[in-house]
Amino acid sequence: MPRSVNSVASRARRKKILKRTRGNFLSRKNVWTVAKNTYEKGLTYAYRDRRNKKREFRALWIQRINAAARQYGITYSQFIGRLAKQNIGLNRKVLADLAMNNPKAFEAIINSVK
């Protein structure tokens, strides 16, 4: 009995990955084995960096809050400690946004915790 190979499905599977690697450099876009490795590695990076993005944004917010708080003579750690003690429930994202875009409101928060 002759061997039956489902070439339609195989070709579709390869085309799907080659379509997703379009725009890559040299053989990474059109050589099947290289493109497959590139695609799988890209998925790994995407998974990892969805988590790293959260870390990087938190670090950015902390830097912005610290810089703004030091203009009023208080360090970041003192500021966050006093916020927690007074049960002011503003998160770092909101505080950083206020520090950048609305300095008057941020100053009011600083004065309320001093």
Explain what you see.
With 114 residues, the chain is an all-alpha fold. It has a domain at 55-114: Ribosomal protein L20, C-terminal domain (c-terminal domain of poly(a) binding protein), CATH 1.10.1900.20. Helix content is 74%, strand content 0%. It has five helices and no strands. The chain has helices spanning 7-20, 32-70, 76-85, 92-101, 103-113. Helix 2 crosses helix 4. The longest helix is centred in the middle third of the chain and has 39 residues, at 32-70. The radius of gyration is 26 Å and the shape is rod-shaped. The mean pLDDT is 95.
Topology:
Layout lengths: L6 H14 L11 H39 L5 H10 L6 H10 L1 H11 L1
Features:
c-terminal domain of poly(a) binding protein; 5 helices; 114 residues
Order of helices and strands: HHHHH
- The percent range for helix content is over 70%
Quaternary structure type = single chain
Cα separation of the termini: 87 Å
Compute the CA-based radius of gyration: 26 Å
Per CATH, what is the topology of the domain at 55-114? c-terminal domain of poly(a) binding protein
CATH superfamily name of the domain at 55-114?
Ribosomal protein L20, C-terminal domain
Shape: rod-shaped
CATH class of the domain at 55-114: Mainly Alpha
In the CATH classification, which architecture of the domain at 55-114 applies? Orthogonal Bundle
| Uncertain stretches of 5 or more adjacent residues | none
How many distinct beta strands?
0
Main sheet makeup: none
- Strand fraction equals under 5%
SS summary, helix count: 5
What's the overall average pLDDT, rounded?
A: 95
